[in-house]
Design brief:
The protein is an alpha+beta fold. Helices cover about 40% and strands about 15% of the residues. A 6-stranded antiparallel sheet has the order 1-2-3-4-6-5.
């Protein structure tokens, strides 16, 4: 496929692979990432760029395009865009301008399905982290800006029962763990004795579901992703309501 080709307006309807095929996450993908971690320099990458294109970039762009109909089933307001620039696949090149780590390349692959109204990663979304020995699915919002964070906290105070019902629901609690950074003290303007104070201290609102490379190679990978993310729908609805965006 042409990696920069836009999806049809109504999304692809005939690209989902046969049930017994999974052309996306093959052993060669993980081997490339392992080798890159041991050889993170431009000379090595330029010599092995064909491996990145063949085993990482192209399969994941295909996966993104093929997942579009299933993503629409989760919510019609999220976009699967098979591109690396302005799309759903994170670029492999690191921005080292303000980092002490000057390694030029990321040694993980990341797929992020953003909300139609999102201008950056600081909005609710679905994320797929692909790294040797460290694979996980996540959903929610990571490092939101202060106004967004305040809106989420206010919603929790306004609807504490809704928040507790969501995090304690069997689908969510049996699949996801809330992770991310938290404040050491109660956020300004919030009661330190509030029953939800531990969650109100959160700076990130993300659920993480871990799995292994054996799951990555399963033939029903796309339905597996959709089913796992579907179990986190209550969190996505809560956050969308807090931010007054459609879900």
């Amino acid at each position: 496929m042409d990696p920069e080709r836009p999806l049809p307006e109504n999304g692809p309807t005939n690209r989902i692979p046969a049930p017994m095929s999974n052309p996306y996450l093959k052993p060669e993908l993980f081997q490339f990432l392992r080798d890159l971690k041991a050889n993170n320099d431009r000379d090595w990458f330029n010599e092995n760029k064909y491996r990145y294109e063949q085993h990482v970039k192209e399969p994941l762009l295909d996966m993104i395009a093929d997942f579009a109909p299933l993503l629409s089933g989760l919510s019609p307001h999220y976009r699967a865009i098979p591109k690396t620039v302005g799309g759903s696949l994170f670029r492999i090149y690191r921005d080292v301008r303000f980092s002490k780590n000057k390694d030029p390349y990321k040694t993980v692959a990341g797929v992020h399905f953003r909300h139609e109204s999102a201008k950056n990663v600081h909005a609710p979304g679905y994320y797929f982290h692909i790294e040797p020995d460290n694979l996980f699915l996540a959903l929610g919002i990571w490092h939101p800006e202060s106004p967004t964070l305040l809106s989420i906290r206010n919603r929790m105070v306004e609807d504490p029962e809704g928040w507790e019902e969501m995090v304690q629901a069997s689908d969510f609690a049996g699949t996801y763990e809330l992770q991310g950074e938290s404040l050491k003290r109660a956020p300004k303007g919030f009661d330190p004795e509030h029953p939800l104070i531990d969650d109100l201290k959160r700076k990130d609102f993300i659920g993480v579901a871990r799995f292994d490379e054996a799951d990555a190679g399963r033939p029903d990978l796309l339905p597996f992703l959709a089913d796992t993310w579907d179990k986190g729908t209550a969190l996505m609805r809560f956050l969308s309501g807090a931010l007054d965006i459609p879900f």
